Request: fold
Amino acid sequence: MPAGATSAGHRLVFLGPPGAGKGTQARDLALEWKVPQVSTGDMLREAVAKQTPLGRQAKATMDQGALVPDDVIVGLIAERLREGDAAGGFILDGFPRTLAQAEALERLLRDLGQPLTRVIFFDVSEPELLRRLTGRRVCRECGSTFHLTSAPPRRSGVCDKCGGRLYQRDDDSEATVRHRLEVYTRQTAPLLDYYQSRNLLSSVPGEGDVEAIRAAVRRVSEPAR
Ligand code: AMP
Reply:
């Protein structure tokens, strides 16, 4: 099979609360399928690190665990999905997060003639989300994620993959995590009905073995025959 053949037509949204494992699965499956992982959180964090006008505007909102305005995010995505590497498919990770974003995405993809093929919901209980997020540590260099107790790095504070320094995201403190989960329930969870009514929604269990979760995502991502 030619390289990338299995990626043909994967235009996916990974949906779920913060800490559900969307980013980890999106990173690995994007490599496997040779499509870009489009993470609005990563794009915003990069803008903050580079102190661009967008980054300066978004930082306080992100630190509070609130959502950046829809028009800003939709503009960012519209630009990103028009880049050449998204023509063969993409995984959207952390977008859309509001009904207005979902509607804007639908219009954008209609214009591009590239409708979504599937929306995958990662189902994880709230206590588990709290545990994961507050213990999460991220590599400053390569973005790999670790967990203080369930996936600790070999050397404390150092990335196993690239030797970069690990840090705790400002928005992973317990108070901010609780707020992010509330924001998710209020603003993002309604998207489950939105995509269910369009026959696009599949759920996978987001707890348990990472490989098993990945296999479940692969299964539901296959185009219907
Ligand atoms: P994440 O890494 O996906 O948890 O995103 C981190 C933060 O970036 C969120 O708490 C929001 O402040 C902001 N953000 C990321 N994606 C979006 C989005 N689609 N809409 C609004 N804000 C977003």
Remarks:
- Residues 18, 40-41, 44, 61-62, 65-68, 73, 94-95, 97, 101, 171, 180 surround adenosine monophosphate (CB under 6 Å).
- The chain has one domain: 10-36+83-220.
- The first strand starts at residue 11 and ends at 15.
